[in-house]
Amino acid sequence: MISSASAYLRWFFYCCYAVLLTAVLLYVRFPEDIFKKYCVKQAQKLFSGTECRIGHLAYYFPLSISLEGVSFSLPKQEKAPLVKLNSITISPALTAFGKVFELKGESYSGQFSGTLHLERKDNQFSLEQIKIQNMNLAEMKPIHDVLEREISGLFDFTGSFSAVINQYMAGKAQGKVKLMAGKISLVQPILAMNAIDLQQMEMEIKYDKQELQVSKGKMKGKELSADFSSTVRVISPWYISDITVTGDVAPQAGFIQNSPTLQNEVRTLLKQYKKSTIPFRVNGSLQKPTFRFGL
User: Fold this and answer.
1) What percent of the chain has pLDDT over 90?
2) Are 207 and 173 within 8 A, CB to CB?
3) To 5 degrees, how large is the angle CA 192–CA 291–CA 238?
4) Which residues pair with 289 in a beta bridge?
5) H helices, E strands: number in the chain
6) What is the pTM of this model?
7) Integer Cα distance of 238 and 78 in angstroms
8) What are phi and psi of 131, to 5 degrees?
9) 77, part of any domain
Protein backbone atom coordinates (compact mmCIF):
# COMPACT_ATOMS: atom_id res chain seq x y z
CA MET A 1 0.00 0.00 0.00
CA ILE A 2 2.83 2.39 0.98
CA SER A 3 4.85 1.49 -2.13
CA SER A 4 1.78 2.08 -4.32
CA ALA A 5 1.22 5.54 -2.81
CA SER A 6 4.92 6.31 -3.21
CA ALA A 7 4.83 5.31 -6.87
CA TYR A 8 1.78 7.52 -7.45
CA LEU A 9 3.47 10.51 -5.82
CA ARG A 10 6.58 10.02 -7.95
CA TRP A 11 4.44 9.86 -11.09
CA PHE A 12 2.57 13.02 -10.04
CA PHE A 13 5.77 14.99 -9.40
CA TYR A 14 7.33 13.78 -12.67
CA CYS A 15 4.25 15.01 -14.56
CA CYS A 16 4.38 18.40 -12.80
CA TYR A 17 8.09 18.63 -13.57
CA ALA A 18 7.49 17.82 -17.25
CA VAL A 19 4.74 20.44 -17.55
CA LEU A 20 6.82 23.12 -15.84
CA LEU A 21 9.90 22.29 -17.89
CA THR A 22 7.86 22.49 -21.10
CA ALA A 23 6.42 25.84 -19.98
CA VAL A 24 9.88 27.23 -19.20
CA LEU A 25 11.30 26.09 -22.56
CA LEU A 26 8.33 27.61 -24.39
CA TYR A 27 8.82 30.87 -22.55
CA VAL A 28 12.54 31.02 -23.31
CA ARG A 29 12.45 29.78 -26.91
CA PHE A 30 8.90 30.28 -28.15
CA PRO A 31 8.61 29.44 -31.91
CA GLU A 32 6.26 32.31 -32.83
CA ASP A 33 6.24 31.89 -36.64
CA ILE A 34 5.64 28.14 -36.52
CA PHE A 35 2.92 28.41 -33.91
CA LYS A 36 1.27 31.35 -35.72
CA LYS A 37 0.89 29.24 -38.87
CA TYR A 38 -0.59 26.45 -36.76
CA CYS A 39 -3.07 28.83 -35.13
CA VAL A 40 -4.13 30.27 -38.51
CA LYS A 41 -4.72 26.77 -39.84
CA GLN A 42 -6.77 25.73 -36.81
CA ALA A 43 -8.81 28.98 -36.85
CA GLN A 44 -9.72 28.44 -40.50
CA LYS A 45 -10.89 24.94 -39.63
CA LEU A 46 -13.11 26.39 -36.89
CA PHE A 47 -14.60 28.92 -39.34
CA SER A 48 -14.52 27.14 -42.69
CA GLY A 49 -14.77 29.35 -45.75
CA THR A 50 -12.84 32.22 -44.15
CA GLU A 51 -9.28 33.47 -44.23
CA CYS A 52 -7.64 34.20 -40.87
CA ARG A 53 -4.82 36.62 -40.21
CA ILE A 54 -2.85 37.01 -36.99
CA GLY A 55 -0.61 40.04 -36.50
CA HIS A 56 1.37 38.98 -33.45
CA LEU A 57 1.45 35.98 -31.15
CA ALA A 58 3.14 35.62 -27.78
CA TYR A 59 3.46 33.04 -25.02
CA TYR A 60 2.94 33.91 -21.35
CA PHE A 61 4.08 31.77 -18.46
CA PRO A 62 2.89 29.28 -17.47
CA LEU A 63 0.66 28.17 -20.40
CA SER A 64 -1.20 31.17 -21.85
CA ILE A 65 -1.17 32.26 -25.50
CA SER A 66 -1.95 35.83 -26.57
CA LEU A 67 -2.91 36.73 -30.14
CA GLU A 68 -3.09 40.30 -31.44
CA GLY A 69 -4.54 41.70 -34.65
CA VAL A 70 -6.76 38.70 -35.42
CA SER A 71 -9.18 39.03 -38.34
CA PHE A 72 -11.47 36.80 -40.39
CA SER A 73 -12.35 37.65 -44.00
CA LEU A 74 -13.97 35.99 -46.97
CA PRO A 75 -11.38 34.59 -49.43
CA LYS A 76 -9.99 37.20 -51.87
CA GLN A 77 -12.12 39.94 -50.31
CA GLU A 78 -10.60 43.42 -50.18
CA LYS A 79 -13.35 44.95 -48.01
CA ALA A 80 -13.20 45.28 -44.24
CA PRO A 81 -12.81 41.94 -42.40
CA LEU A 82 -15.96 40.19 -41.25
CA VAL A 83 -14.66 40.04 -37.67
CA LYS A 84 -11.72 41.74 -35.96
CA LEU A 85 -10.18 41.03 -32.57
CA ASN A 86 -7.64 43.49 -31.26
CA SER A 87 -6.41 40.80 -28.90
CA ILE A 88 -7.39 37.48 -27.36
CA THR A 89 -5.66 35.56 -24.57
CA ILE A 90 -6.27 31.81 -24.19
CA SER A 91 -5.41 30.16 -20.89
CA PRO A 92 -6.03 26.44 -20.26
CA ALA A 93 -7.57 25.40 -16.95
CA LEU A 94 -5.02 23.16 -15.25
CA THR A 95 -7.81 21.15 -13.58
CA ALA A 96 -9.24 20.15 -16.99
CA PHE A 97 -6.24 20.55 -19.26
CA GLY A 98 -7.11 20.53 -22.97
CA LYS A 99 -10.85 20.66 -22.30
CA VAL A 100 -11.49 23.99 -20.56
CA PHE A 101 -9.98 27.36 -21.52
CA GLU A 102 -10.39 30.87 -20.14
CA LEU A 103 -10.73 33.52 -22.85
CA LYS A 104 -10.40 37.28 -22.60
CA GLY A 105 -9.64 40.03 -25.03
CA GLU A 106 -10.57 43.28 -26.76
CA SER A 107 -12.59 43.90 -29.92
CA TYR A 108 -14.22 46.96 -31.47
CA SER A 109 -13.03 49.12 -28.55
CA GLY A 110 -14.77 46.81 -26.07
CA GLN A 111 -13.79 43.88 -23.87
CA PHE A 112 -14.93 40.25 -23.78
CA SER A 113 -14.35 37.19 -21.64
CA GLY A 114 -15.71 33.69 -21.21
CA THR A 115 -14.99 30.05 -20.47
CA LEU A 116 -14.67 27.61 -23.38
CA HIS A 117 -15.54 23.93 -22.83
CA LEU A 118 -14.53 21.47 -25.56
CA GLU A 119 -15.97 18.03 -26.24
CA ARG A 120 -13.55 16.82 -28.89
CA LYS A 121 -15.25 13.43 -29.31
CA ASP A 122 -18.52 14.98 -30.55
CA ASN A 123 -16.92 18.12 -32.03
CA GLN A 124 -19.07 20.18 -29.67
CA PHE A 125 -18.23 23.20 -27.58
CA SER A 126 -19.88 25.62 -25.19
CA LEU A 127 -19.03 29.14 -24.19
CA GLU A 128 -20.12 29.85 -20.64
CA GLN A 129 -20.05 33.03 -18.58
CA ILE A 130 -19.74 35.16 -21.71
CA LYS A 131 -19.32 38.81 -20.87
CA ILE A 132 -19.10 41.51 -23.54
CA GLN A 133 -18.77 45.15 -22.51
CA ASN A 134 -18.80 48.43 -24.47
CA MET A 135 -18.36 46.89 -27.92
CA ASN A 136 -18.77 49.77 -30.39
CA LEU A 137 -21.26 48.86 -33.11
CA ALA A 138 -20.23 51.91 -35.16
CA GLU A 139 -16.94 50.12 -35.91
CA MET A 140 -18.63 47.05 -37.42
CA LYS A 141 -18.63 48.31 -41.01
CA PRO A 142 -19.55 44.98 -42.70
CA ILE A 143 -22.87 44.97 -40.80
CA HIS A 144 -23.63 48.54 -41.92
CA ASP A 145 -22.79 47.65 -45.52
CA VAL A 146 -25.07 44.61 -45.58
CA LEU A 147 -27.99 46.25 -43.74
CA GLU A 148 -27.52 49.42 -45.82
CA ARG A 149 -27.92 51.74 -42.83
CA GLU A 150 -25.96 53.08 -39.90
CA ILE A 151 -26.14 51.46 -36.46
CA SER A 152 -24.14 52.74 -33.51
CA GLY A 153 -24.03 52.25 -29.76
CA LEU A 154 -22.15 50.45 -27.01
CA PHE A 155 -23.13 46.77 -26.92
CA ASP A 156 -23.15 44.61 -23.77
CA PHE A 157 -23.99 40.91 -23.50
CA THR A 158 -23.95 38.33 -20.73
CA GLY A 159 -24.93 34.71 -21.35
CA SER A 160 -23.89 31.45 -22.99
CA PHE A 161 -23.63 29.77 -26.40
CA SER A 162 -23.15 26.15 -27.47
CA ALA A 163 -22.93 24.42 -30.85
CA VAL A 164 -21.17 21.85 -32.99
CA ILE A 165 -18.06 23.28 -34.65
CA ASN A 166 -18.91 24.77 -38.07
CA GLN A 167 -22.62 24.36 -37.38
CA TYR A 168 -22.98 27.58 -35.43
CA MET A 169 -26.37 28.56 -36.85
CA ALA A 170 -27.82 25.37 -35.36
CA GLY A 171 -26.48 26.20 -31.90
CA LYS A 172 -28.16 27.39 -28.71
CA ALA A 173 -27.78 30.65 -26.81
CA GLN A 174 -29.36 32.61 -24.04
CA GLY A 175 -28.57 35.80 -22.22
CA LYS A 176 -29.19 39.50 -21.74
CA VAL A 177 -28.41 42.29 -24.19
CA LYS A 178 -27.95 45.98 -23.50
CA LEU A 179 -27.31 48.79 -25.99
CA MET A 180 -26.40 52.27 -24.77
CA ALA A 181 -25.80 55.66 -26.37
CA GLY A 182 -26.80 54.46 -29.81
CA LYS A 183 -28.41 55.54 -33.05
CA ILE A 184 -30.32 53.43 -35.57
CA SER A 185 -31.07 54.73 -39.06
CA LEU A 186 -34.58 53.87 -40.22
CA VAL A 187 -35.52 52.31 -43.55
CA GLN A 188 -38.71 54.41 -43.60
CA PRO A 189 -39.58 57.55 -41.59
CA ILE A 190 -41.52 57.07 -38.34
CA LEU A 191 -43.25 60.13 -36.93
CA ALA A 192 -41.07 62.28 -39.21
CA MET A 193 -37.88 60.63 -37.84
CA ASN A 194 -35.18 59.16 -40.09
CA ALA A 195 -33.23 57.75 -37.14
CA ILE A 196 -33.82 56.82 -33.50
CA ASP A 197 -31.47 58.17 -30.85
CA LEU A 198 -31.16 55.52 -28.16
CA GLN A 199 -30.26 56.26 -24.58
CA GLN A 200 -30.63 52.63 -23.52
CA MET A 201 -32.18 49.41 -24.80
CA GLU A 202 -32.38 46.11 -22.88
CA MET A 203 -33.74 42.68 -23.74
CA GLU A 204 -33.49 38.99 -22.91
CA ILE A 205 -32.72 36.54 -25.70
CA LYS A 206 -33.03 32.81 -26.28
CA TYR A 207 -31.81 31.10 -29.45
CA ASP A 208 -32.61 27.51 -30.42
CA LYS A 209 -33.38 25.62 -33.65
CA GLN A 210 -32.48 28.68 -35.73
CA GLU A 211 -35.07 30.84 -33.99
CA LEU A 212 -34.19 33.85 -31.87
CA GLN A 213 -36.75 34.85 -29.25
CA VAL A 214 -36.49 38.34 -27.76
CA SER A 215 -38.48 39.07 -24.60
CA LYS A 216 -38.78 41.84 -22.01
CA GLY A 217 -37.50 44.37 -24.51
CA LYS A 218 -37.38 47.96 -23.27
CA MET A 219 -36.11 50.99 -25.15
CA LYS A 220 -35.67 54.56 -23.98
CA GLY A 221 -34.69 57.18 -26.50
CA LYS A 222 -34.54 60.89 -26.99
CA GLU A 223 -37.77 60.88 -28.99
CA LEU A 224 -39.51 57.63 -28.03
CA SER A 225 -39.76 54.93 -25.38
CA ALA A 226 -41.04 51.44 -26.15
CA ASP A 227 -41.71 47.94 -24.84
CA PHE A 228 -41.32 45.13 -27.34
CA SER A 229 -40.77 41.44 -28.08
CA SER A 230 -39.69 39.76 -31.29
CA THR A 231 -38.99 36.55 -33.15
CA VAL A 232 -36.25 36.12 -35.76
CA ARG A 233 -36.21 32.97 -37.91
CA VAL A 234 -32.55 32.76 -38.82
CA ILE A 235 -31.52 31.59 -42.29
CA SER A 236 -28.45 32.02 -44.46
CA PRO A 237 -27.39 34.63 -45.34
CA TRP A 238 -28.33 36.07 -41.95
CA TYR A 239 -29.49 39.47 -43.22
CA ILE A 240 -32.51 37.99 -45.05
CA SER A 241 -33.72 36.28 -41.86
CA ASP A 242 -37.43 36.79 -41.23
CA ILE A 243 -38.26 39.17 -38.37
CA THR A 244 -41.44 39.92 -36.44
CA VAL A 245 -41.50 42.61 -33.76
CA THR A 246 -44.54 43.68 -31.76
CA GLY A 247 -44.81 46.25 -29.00
CA ASP A 248 -46.01 49.63 -27.82
CA VAL A 249 -44.37 52.98 -28.30
CA ALA A 250 -44.80 56.27 -26.44
CA PRO A 251 -43.46 59.54 -27.91
CA GLN A 252 -41.60 61.73 -25.44
CA ALA A 253 -43.42 64.96 -24.59
CA GLY A 254 -40.45 67.10 -25.55
CA PHE A 255 -40.31 65.50 -28.99
CA ILE A 256 -43.80 66.51 -30.14
CA GLN A 257 -44.47 69.69 -28.15
CA ASN A 258 -43.09 72.02 -30.84
CA SER A 259 -44.80 70.29 -33.77
CA PRO A 260 -48.59 70.66 -34.14
CA THR A 261 -48.52 68.15 -37.00
CA LEU A 262 -46.91 65.46 -34.82
CA GLN A 263 -49.22 66.30 -31.93
CA ASN A 264 -52.26 65.74 -34.14
CA GLU A 265 -50.85 62.50 -35.55
CA VAL A 266 -50.08 61.10 -32.10
CA ARG A 267 -53.44 62.23 -30.72
CA THR A 268 -55.24 60.49 -33.61
CA LEU A 269 -53.31 57.23 -33.08
CA LEU A 270 -53.95 57.19 -29.32
CA LYS A 271 -57.64 57.79 -29.93
CA GLN A 272 -57.77 55.09 -32.61
CA TYR A 273 -56.26 52.37 -30.42
CA LYS A 274 -57.80 53.63 -27.15
CA LYS A 275 -54.52 53.27 -25.26
CA SER A 276 -51.97 55.48 -23.55
CA THR A 277 -49.33 54.01 -25.90
CA ILE A 278 -49.34 53.28 -29.63
CA PRO A 279 -49.07 49.61 -30.74
CA PHE A 280 -46.68 48.84 -33.58
CA ARG A 281 -45.47 45.92 -35.66
CA VAL A 282 -42.35 45.26 -37.73
CA ASN A 283 -42.21 42.53 -40.39
CA GLY A 284 -39.93 41.61 -43.27
CA SER A 285 -36.23 40.82 -43.14
CA LEU A 286 -33.36 42.19 -41.07
CA GLN A 287 -32.08 44.00 -44.15
CA LYS A 288 -35.47 45.34 -45.30
CA PRO A 289 -37.92 45.57 -42.40
CA THR A 290 -41.32 47.27 -42.76
CA PHE A 291 -42.90 49.26 -39.91
CA ARG A 292 -46.52 50.08 -39.26
CA PHE A 293 -48.62 51.28 -36.36
CA GLY A 294 -51.33 48.86 -35.29
CA LEU A 295 -52.01 45.55 -33.62
Assistant:
1) 63
2) yes
3) 125
4) 284
5) 5, 14
6) 0.85
7) 21
8) -140, 115
9) yes
